[in-house]
Specification:
By secondary structure, this protein is α+β, with helices and mostly antiparallel strands. Helices cover 28% and strands 20% of the residues. Strand 15 and strand 16 form a beta hairpin. The two termini are 38 Å apart.
Length: 1489
């Protein structure tokens, strides 16, 4: 079996040898240090060169010919540098090296399997590459070198788990035969820094029908960074064992034995690595997975790769020398992995876990059995669902293992739950906050902290508790409920959400890996995407609740997340989608999904607004461009009310709000002409009609600093801005950050100038002004150090240079039509223009010295939007002072006139909520102005010729995960723009910029962007840190981004725990025990909720959550999105516990609240003092003294608790009242409420009862009624007259296809096969084959394929209709009369009683027979003669109108009648369709077997 396979993101054929004197400035380029070894027989791998290779040669043919010499791991047929014709050379790599030097023969005959007579000769020689035969230098001992890969032969591998620290339960054992021992190995791969295990699994089960006996090769990887210790056990004199336990499941792979695997005629490269396919399950019957729900407990795994994460390898001394073992042990030790000998290990006999049989209902359900279960018999215990959920949280997080749970534990938990379900849930929520495994679960019932734990507090009115499931390839992780800002759906169905029926689901790779990477051109990860689809299609089971796919929000979608819902007797997923809006008119799946996602935007409902008056406005368009796309108006009065409702800490109301109102979206800008309670909406803002549920606000306009990034710096450099400008800006910032750590005044100045998106720098500046930096408060100093580390990290990784003379603002339009628009210049593109030729903007931003005073920017400016990749994306404009616009602050006002809208020229922006940067720094003004803007047109979206169904959304979700090439395109653009001489102006970069725009639009159009091979980067600059690329594919960039990268040294963040707490607060009050006890109780709850958010977001410190300066790289999504999401979570957490503290104190009046805040500060100090004392104390660990507690964030108490009230702390410390002067806004009459409480209306009428809006025609629309402002029946965007119905059929010729029940091309297993031995659950496909090609299981004869062969062998002798599935087969003696049967559409699975998703979003049920006819009707004739056949179908359907819509415009011979009610008995109607087709053979091929 081939060894040493590499990770998915690297070329495993290369071994990196960095410089002998590595520059410590580039640690990512150092890698393992290598030393030549010229004895090729001892090399790890060996390459040969071929010359004279024919242009038509294939990698498969070369593999077929040369594999007789040894194990081939890589083949490349070389092409010219421009990606064109082949140059006649090739490279073949062997690992391990061949047994004999066959290249000494100088030539090799190349024949062709398909053309036996076509032979030719190639020249063969040893590859002249000094990297061959290299060894790895020890990172500790510089004179010590190791072999790159060291392999030990295992005599057995046991898969299982640790029942306690000294006992293992093996649950499956691999014991190789004498001939297989070389294939059961443990490889220490020092090149990739991981351990690789290889084994062959034998699948045998003579009692199982049908038979799936087979042998498959598997492999899994354990990265070094997951290991710190390996245990060794001496079994006897002849053998020893190594025991490895990991927290996160490793990545498993299965070897494809197909000799053609990974090869294609078009591809000039082949890697043996491409024959290894990721695995999600190892089971005997692979087809049973098709219909299984995703659950924590798996019924029949051979190896549960997600849960059995302890591995015991047995080694015979006879097969593994002591010298090899000593070498491996020393090498691992040098990489910080100790092999520790243990005296004994107890093996626990294998058995199934008792837990599931104790808490799950009996499999054979009947009324008496169900009743017995609910009442709780001696054998089973019914747990309330919230208790069951929390138990599975603990099990999924491996805090409690199901094999440690016995009947006594379940009985005790059930007894507590019967008395007090909340207490039982609280105990388990406490357990979920623990970090260490509990081997004795019964002990938690004796833990006083667990028994006293009460995490629930009053939460803000705009928040709700959210449950989350993370689905990985091999298992599922559940999270305790966390407090999050709600959306429209969760607010409307708040009762169901409180009952735990909504579930947020995210799909990721294994926990140690991160995101599932897209791979459109590879099949290696297809099983991962198949699991995602199965989850969406089959649902998730938690206890007795089955969660079905509901929909996904637009931001969720890009982060591979979705919402699931557990239906009730009265509410289904379909009911919720119907309530969300009317989407029937949208035939584009991508657009349909986006409109549904609009309802899941995180918003704040403005409940205080009653009866706003709606005014409709026309859009302003010119030359096909819309200048007002997404922008409306709102009155100043309503803006002030929104500011009060949101409790914004500003002296003036914001000028713009991003909003949702029914099916309308975009921004509303404050304009005086919008009177009193008016909201002005444009047609471009209404995307669909939906139920009116009040005005919802996503965010408000506010100021933040402009910043450069790698893309904008690259463009500006190409346009002529000198490198010294960027370097000087960077040098100044780095010096400022360093000085600010000890200079209060400079720190405040920088924090007020370098304002982040969440404006946390303003809060930190206020703390410093209140003297907390001078007093050395540990929390404030920690925040300051974190801010520096975060800022420098962004400088290093993204070249994020703050531009002080600039702003990052929301864009809007000039409703006064004063600003001059863009006109096509008379001079050539790139030349500087006179000011009067430039388009104009208006910008008003806060004064640097006094944020309450605003200044109007005037002069030449640069405007752009992130990301900018095209040189025309940055526009030079003129900022002018317009008195009529002085009421607008913290926004960029664009002109309403011109040949083209300016926002659209900035990377295709619009005004529905896009942010733009504006820069008026003269040093950054490029010599070259206004390059031609990219004229990108989005591809025509895929249009369905039938209503969009829920399975279409599922398929689109998975297709996007597999095909999203946006990150790879952006990386290729960055690398090429640095490497190529013309930079962003090079034709390659211009093509990549257009491709990037197409990839951005993928979520709207459903059309993926495919990156051609010639546009891929051949060389990678060092600043991109492509550490897995071979050295020859990297270079040290001397362009501006390389210079900036080299200039920045990352600063690690260390909390300042040892600094003193502020005596001004500690001495301010005399505090009694009662108030201190109350503060401790609230702090305990606060710490638990903080831990939950840290765990959910995978963030290491509380300081990052509190400040939103997140250092941790997000598992999925961008840093910007994480910054935004953490900001929302942090705000909700602070609001929640401010409310709790105010209630405990008794009032928010400072005289009462002040002492409680001081108590919060004091109890935090006491906890930290105890921890610091433990850090200074020591204990013996073996022969060494170690601290009792590590002074690291994971081991220290939280200290952010009192800073929920930073303003109150400032008032206690200084004696100065710094309360926001909101009364000066003229808002005193708005009666600002306490956090978490809704404002009550006079007269006792609830907000919901009085909430309505009034259209301009006087029509009143109440909450809950449909809102349609423009009487539109179709989306505002047009669709191309095309269909993707044939897409799968065209690309899936190798499969046995027919048309599925919803019109998609699927495997014919979705239909019954006459006389087929295939079980029902295997016949009923899910449609995943339409999304992800299903690779065959090696060594397994698919009974479906056997059935296919049996039927196809005689297909040519049948009539057209004989090949049809039974349910659609007509009597042989006459034309087919097919009666529609609802069982065909929603067939139940006798082997699986799970719920299946609704097949139609519109409520109409497609007729199976119509799909078959539609398929034949779409086939075009290939010959001149066309035969017409008349087929009479007897169709059972509620309406002929529906039939016409489903079948298409075929020749219906009967008039269309009115729709019948669903409860009316339907009569049979005869429809005659004319089917055009060239031959019976073609129809037979498409519709028969």
């Amino acid at each position: 079996m081939t060894q040493g396979h590499r990770g998915t993101r690297m070329d495993h054929t290369r071994v990196v040898r960095p410089s002998r004197s590595p520059n410590p400035q580039y640690p990512h380029l150092q890698g393992p240090l290598l030393k030549p070894n010229f004895d090729w027989q001892k090399w790890d791998e060996l390459s040969i060169r071929l010359r004279g290779v024919a242009p038509h040669e294939t990698t498969y043919n070369l593999w077929r010919i040369f594999r007789k010499y040894g194990e081939i791991c890589f083949i490349e047929i070389f092409e010219s540098r421009d990606g064109g014709a082949r140059d006649g050379n090739a490279k073949i790599k062997f690992s391990p090296p061949p047994s004999s030097p066959f290249w000494n023969n100088k030539t090799q005959t190349i024949d062709d399997e398909e053309n036996p007579g076509a032979n030719y000769f190639v020249q063969v020689s040893l590859w002249d590459d000094r990297r061959q035969g290299l060894t790895i230098k020890s990172p500790v001992k510089h004179t010590k070198f190791y072999q790159p890969r060291m392999k030990m032969m295992a005599s057995a591998i046991h898969f299982g788990l640790m029942v306690d620290p000294v006992s293992m339960m093996p649950l499956h054992t691999i014991t190789p035969t004498h001939t297989e021992v070389n294939g059961t190995t443990l490889v220490v791969d020092l090149v990739r820094r991981r351990i690789v295990a290889n084994f062959t699994a034998k699948f045998e089960n003579p009692e199982y029908t049908p038979n799936y006996d087979r042998n498959n090769q598997y492999m899994f990887h354990i990265p070094f960074d997951q290991l710190t210790k390996i245990r060794r056990l001496d079994i006897n004199d002849a053998a020893f064992a190594l025991i490895i336990s990991v927290e996160s499941p490793p990545q498993y792979y299965r070897k494809r034995q197909d000799k053609l695997a990974g090869h294609s005629r078009e591809n000039s490269q082949w890697k043996e690595w491409d024959t290894w396919y990721r695995q999600t399950d190892i089971v005997y019957d692979p087809y049973i997975l098709q219909r299984e729900t995703i659950a924590l407990h798996k019924d029949r795994p051979v190896i549960d790769i997600g849960r059995w994460t302890t591995y015991l390898f047995e080694f015979a001394h006879a097969n593994n020398t002591s010298a090899l073992y000593a070498e491996i042990k020393q090498a691992l030790q040098d990489f910080n992995i100790e092999i520790v000998s243990i005296p004994a290990l107890t093996k626990i006999p294998s058995h199934s876990a008792d837990l599931w049989s104790l808490i799950d209902p009996p499999k054979l359900q009947n009324a008496s059995a169900d009743l017995e279960f609910m009442q709780g018999s001696d054998g089973t215990f019914a747990l309330p669902w919230e208790v069951r959920y929390q138990l599975e949280v603990c099990i999924s997080r491996e805090i409690i293992n199901e094999y440690n749970i016995n009947k006594a534990f379940v009985k005790k938990l059930a007894d507590i739950a019967a008395q007090d379900p909340i207490k039982a849930r609280n105990i388990l929520e406490y357990v979920a906050t623990l970090e260490n495994r509990i081997y004795d679960p019964l002990s938690i019932f004796e833990d006083p902290l667990a028994l006293a734990f009460t995490p629930k507090t009053e939460i803000p009115h705009y928040c709700a508790h959210s449950r989350k499931a993370t689905i990985t390839p091999s298992t599922m992780y559940l999270s305790s409920p966390t407090v999050e800002t709600t959306n429209r759906v969760l607010r409307h169905y708040s009762r169901e959400n409180k009952d735990g029926r909504f579930l947020r689901v995210q799909f990721t790779d294994e926990m140690a890996e991160g995101k599932i990477n897209s791979c459109a051109d590879k099949q290696r990860n297809d099983e991962l995407f198949t699991r995602v689809y199965r989850t969406l299609y089959n649902g998730i089971q938690i206890g007795d609740r089955h969660f079905e796919f509901l929909a996904f929000g637009n931001s969720q979608f890009r982060e591979n997340g979705a919402y699931f819902f557990c239906p009730t007797d009265h509410l289904s997923c379909e009911d919720i989608r119907k309530w969300m809006g009317t989407f029937d008119h949208i035939p584009v799946v991508a657009k349909y999904a986006a409109r549904l996602g609009q309802c899941f935007s995180t918003t704040r409902a403005i409940n205080g607004l009653s009866a706003p008056d709606i005014v409709t406005l026309p859009d302003v368009e010119n030359n096909g461009y819309c200048f007002t796309d997404g922008v409306g108006k709102i009155s100043p009065f309503l803006a002030q009310m929104i500011a009060a409702e949101l409790q914004l800490r500003t002296t003036t109301a914001p000028s713009a709000f991003q909003f949702r109102l029914g099916g309308c979206k975009g921004i509303l800008v404050v304009w005086p002409e919008a009177k009193e309670k008016e909201v002005h909406i444009r047609k471009s803002q209404q995307k669909f009609t939906a139920t009116y549920n009040g005005l919802e606000i996503i965010r408000c306009s506010r100021f933040s600093c402009a910043s450069l990034n790698r893309q904008t710096i690259t463009i500006l450099s190409s346009l002529g801005v000198p490198d010294e400008v960027f370097l000087n800006m960077l040098t100044e910032q780095l010096a400022n950050y360093q000085t600010a750590m000890s200079d209060d005044d400079l720190a405040v100045s920088l924090l007020l100038r370098y304002i982040d998106d969440n404006q946390m720098t303003l809060n930190l500046a206020t703390m410093i002004r209140n003297g907390f930096m001078a007093q050395r408060d540990p929390f404030v100093l920690s925040l300051l150090h974190l801010w520096r580390s975060w800022s420098i990290k962004l400088l290093k990784e993204k070249a994020k240079i703050i531009v002080e003379n600039g702003a990052f603002l929301l864009g809007c339009v000039d409703e006064t039509n004063t600003l001059r628009g863009y006109t096509h210049p008379n001079s050539a593109y790139g030349q500087q223009l006179a000011a009067e030729e430039l388009p104009q903007i208006f910008v008003q931003v806060p004064d640097k010295a006094d944020p309450n005073r605003y200044n109007v920017v005037e002069g030449i400016c640069l405007v752009g939007r992130n990301p900018s990749l095209h040189p025309g994306d940055l526009r030079v404009v003129e900022a002018i002072n317009v008195p009529a616009l002085h009421h607008l602050t913290d926004v960029i006002v664009f002109p309403m006139q011109g040949d083209r809208d300016v926002p659209g020229m900035c990377s295709g922006g619009d005004l529905d909520g896009d942010d733009f940067f504006v820069i008026w720094d003269k040093d950054l003004r490029p010599p070259e102005w206004n390059c031609e803007p990219m004229n990108y047109s989005a591809p025509k979206p895929k249009v369905h010729n039938r209503p969009v169904e829920i399975t279409d959304l599922m398929k689109f979700f998975v297709r996007f995960m597999k095909n999203d090439s946006l990150p790879s395109i952006a990386h290729a653009h960055l690398a090429n723009s640095d490497f190529l001489h013309r930079g962003v102006k090079d034709p390659k970069c211009l093509k990549l910029a257009a491709l990037h725009s197409k990839a951005v639009d993928y979520v709207k159009t459903g059309e993926p962007a495919e990156m051609p091979k010639e546009l891929r980067a051949r060389k990678w600059p060092h600043f991109m840190e492509k550490k897995y690329k071979p050295k020859e594919a990297q270079y040290h960039s001397d362009k501006i981004l390389g210079l900036l990268y080299d200039k920045v040294e990352t600063v690690n963040f260390s909390p300042q725990y040892e600094e003193p707490f502020d005596k001004r607060i500690l001495r301010a009050y005399t505090l009694d025990d009662a108030i201190l006890k109350a503060a401790r109780q609230v702090k305990t709850k606060y710490d638990v909720h903080m831990k939950r958010i840290m765990a959910q977001q995978e963030i290491k410190t509380e300081f990052e959550i509190w400040s939103t300066f997140v250092l941790s790289k997000p598992r999925v999504g961008s840093d910007y999105k994480v910054h935004e999401e953490v900001g929302r979570l942090s705000d909700a957490l602070k609001d929640q516990f401010r409310l709790e503290c105010i209630e405990r104190a008794g009032s928010k009046d400072f005289s009462i609240l002040g002492p409680f805040v001081a108590a919060m500060y004091k109890v935090t100090k006491e906890e930290l003092d105890i921890a610091l004392a433990e850090c200074r104390a020591t204990k013996m660990a073996g022969t060494m003294k170690v601290p009792l507690r590590k002074m690291e964030p994971g081991h220290m108490p939280f200290i952010s608790f009192p800073w929920l009230f930073e303003k109150e702390l400032g008032r206690i410390a200084t004696g100065i009242d710094t309360t926001d002067e909101l009364e000066n806004m003229g808002l005193s009459a708005l009666a600002l409420k306490e956090p978490g409480h809704s404002r009550k209306r006079q007269g006792g009428v609830g907000a919901l009862d009085e909430d309505f809006i009034k259209r301009e025609d006087g029509h009143v629309i109440h909450r809950g009624e449909e809102l349609d402002l423009f009487n539109q029946i179709s989306d505002t965007e047009s669709y191309a007259d095309e269909s993707d119905l044939d897409e799968a059929r065209v690309t899936r010729d190798e499969h046995w296809l027919t048309t599925g029940r919803s019109g998609e091309a699927v495997l014919a297993t979705d239909f019954e096969l006459p006389d087929s031995p295939v079980p029902d659950y295997m016949r009923k496909g899910t449609g995943v084959e339409d999304v992800v090609p299903q690779a065959p299981m090696d060594g397994l004869v698919d009974p479906r394929e056997a059935a296919r062969d049996a039927h196809s062998s005689s297909a040519e002798h049948r009539s057209v209709f004989e090949g049809m599935p039974e349910k659609f087969q007509a009597p042989a003696n006459k034309l087919g009369y097919v009666r529609g049967n609802s069982q065909n559409l929603h067939s139940t699975d006798e082997y699986n009683s799970i719920l299946t998703p609704d097949r139609s979003l519109t409520g109409s049920e497609p007729v199976a027979s119509s799909s078959a006819v539609d398929d034949s009707a779409d086939i075009e004739s290939d010959s001149a003669e066309v035969e017409e056949e008349v087929v009479e179908l007897e169709v059972k359907e509620s309406s002929l109108e529906k039939l016409a819509r489903l079948v298409g415009d075929t020749a219906l011979k009967v008039p269309v009648t009115d729709s019948l009610e669903d409860d009316v008995v339907e009569e049979e109607e005869e429809v005659i369709l004319e089917v055009k087709e060239s031959s019976l053979d073609k129809l037979n091929r498409m519709m028969a077997s």
